[in-house]
Every structure is written in C-alpha cells, then in structure tokens.
From TrEMBL:
Organism placement in taxonomy: Bacteria, Pseudomonadati, Pseudomonadota, Betaproteobacteria, Burkholderiales
Keywords from the named record: Lyase, Metal-binding, Zinc
Homology family: Belongs to the Gfa family.
Name listed for the protein in its UniProt record: GFA family protein
SUPFAM superfamilies according to UniProt: Mss4-like (SSF51316)
Residue ranges occupied by any CENP-V/GFA domain in the UniProt entry: 4-107
Superkingdom assignment: Bacteria
Any one Pfam family match given in the protein's UniProt record, by short name: GFA
Matching InterPro entries: CENP-V/GFA, Mss4-like_sf
The keyword Cell inner membrane appears for this protein: no
Keyword Metal-binding set for record: yes
C-alpha cells in the first residue's frame, strides 16, 4: 500500500497520508460507541507527520479521555461522519476511523481495547490481543 486516502460520507472532508500505518485497533469504549453510533470504533493509527486534511466543513468535539487528557474527535459538519481523532496524550499520531478509508480492505485490527465495555453484539475476534481499558503506554 503506497498511500492511505479517505473521507467522510459527503466527500467534503478528505485526507491522505503517504506514511505507513502503525497499527489498527478496535476500541469498545463508551465514547467511541456514542460517536460511531455502533458497538465499537475501528481505528487505523498513522503518524501525524504527513497526515494531510482538506476540508472546509471539519468540526471538532473536544472530548476528554479517561486519563483526563484531551481527545479531539474530528467529524464532518455537513454529513456528520466521524473521520479522525487526535490524542493530546500522544500528539505523534492520529487515529483514522477505518470506515472512512477509500480502501479499507487491508485493515486487520491487531488489538481490541476497552473490552470491559464491549457489547455482546460487538464481537471480539478470536485470538486478538485484548485490553480491558487503554493499552499500557
Ligand atoms: Zn461530510
Ligand atoms: Zn474509544
């Protein structure tokens, strides 16, 4: 894979990066459930350096993580799609919502986090590395 590209439902928010993804992870936390409207959020973590966003409709919800650190949840103000998240605790990376990728076929989440709040209808794949809450730093 040479380049990661994607965007929101209406196409007003577009992003790309030429950097290789660092990991893919499924988050079962309550905040991701609320924001995604689903049982979990699947995220592809990429370096923030080289991550380029093009949009005039980008909105930000300033959330707070369990640690008390800020979590900036970016979404499209036109169509409402959650697109990516920045973590004050780790400014070197951004977490892209995997469902917004133009080609998500290669995504294979290695990690499941916040299993303590996982829903029975949000399956955790067998053999996955699981953490009850956030992975240790
Ligand atoms: Zn949109
Ligand atoms: Zn989460």
């Amino acid at each position: 894979m040479n380049e990661i590209k994607g965007g929101c439902l209406c196409g007003s928010v577009r992003y790309e990066t030429a950097r290789a993804p660092l990991m893919s992870a499924v988050c079962h936390c309550i905040h991701c459930q609320k924001q995604s409207g689903s049982a979990f959020s699947t995220n592809v973590v990429v370096p923030s350096a080289g991550f380029e966003i093009a949009s005039s409709t980008l909105g930000t919800f300033n959330d707070v993580g369990e640690s008390g650190a800020g979590v900036k949840r970016h979404f499209c103000r036109k169509c409402g799609s959650p697109v990516y998240t920045e973590l004050d605790a780790n400014p070197d990376v951004v977490a892209i919502k995997a469902g917004t990728l133009d080609d998500p076929s290669w995504v294979q989440p290695q990690v499941h986090m916040w299993r303590c709040s996982a829903k029975s209808w949000g399956q955790v794949s067998e053999g996955a590395v699981c953490f009850d809450r956030n992975p240790p730093a």
